[in-house]
Design goal:
Elements (H helix, E strand, L loop, with lengths): L9 E3 L6 H31 L6 H29 L4 E2 L1 H34 L4 H4 L2 H27 L7 E2 L6 H7 L5 H34 L4
Parallel strand pairs: 1-3
Antiparallel strand pairs: 1-2
Helix pairs in contact: 1-2, 2-3, 3-5, 3-7, 5-7
């Protein structure tokens, strides 16, 4: 990440053109953030302490909840800071960290949803083989693969994004993400756009297709049940 066009940081414009809306959004985001923290923490805590919930489904659900906690904690505190006062800035290092974490969490959540869909498919369509297929070691490997895929994307895409030559330090967004930086760039962004398209196909379209396929199979299996 050699790009130091704006070592002082960036300005997140967000909703700065609507100051009357910012205070409303501030309190709405606080309520949303508090709800997310409480509900996801409760899911993780219950999944850990209740022996009845030590099943693959709740193991995957607690991981999804942890991803949600990380995602919101990465974005919302900075957003609340920008909504509350006139300072809309974020440091260069903070922006790098935010983008890196978001690029890791997004594909991790997508792959985790595919794993949960697989769990439901096996439990409904292959009930007699469920405990054999969805054993503890296999569940660990699936979760590890989800986090590894996100980590790989983050390690690859973050340095390439910050090597772009930026024309200005004003980001037309409330967070640091790849499309906003591509819009900010002065030079050739074809490589970044190609990489973003490939990641969108691998971690959005493909997972969505797999999830829909699993639910079609589940629907067909339920349709064959006589009662």
């Amino acid at each position: 990440m050699a790009n130091k066009s704006f070592p002082g940081g960036f300005i997140l414009l967000g909703f700065s053109e609507r100051p009357d809306l910012e205070i409303v959004l501030f309190w709405a985001v606080i309520v949303l953030y508090t709800t997310i923290i409480i509900t996801n923490s409760a899911i993780i805590l219950l999944s850990c302490v209740d022996p009845c919930l030590h099943t693959p489904m709740y193991y995957f659900l607690s991981n999804i909840s942890f991803v949600d906690l990380c995602f919101t904690t990465t974005v919302l505190p900075q957003m609340l800071s920008n909504l509350w006062g006139p300072d809309k800035s974020i440091t260069y290092t903070g922006c790098v960290i935010q983008l890196c974490v978001l690029l890791c969490l997004s594909p991790t959540e997508d792959v985790m949803l595919v794993v949960m869909a697989l769990d439901r498919y096996v439990s409904i369509c292959q009930p007699l083989r469920y405990t054999v297929i969805m054993h503890q070691q296999f569940c660990w490997k699936m979760v590890f693969m989800a986090w590894l895929s996100g980590l790989i994307l983050s390690v690859v895409q973050t340095p390439i994004t910050f090597q772009l030559p930026f024309c200005t330090h004003h980001l037309d967004n409330f967070l640091c993400d790849v499309p906003a930086f591509i819009y900010l760039a002065c030079g050739d962004t074809s490589a970044n756009e190609c990489q973003m398209t490939i990641s969108a196909v691998l971690f959005t379209i493909v997972p969505l297709g797999l999830i829909l396929t699993s639910y079609v199979c589940i629907a067909q299996a339920l349709g064959k049940i006589q009662s």
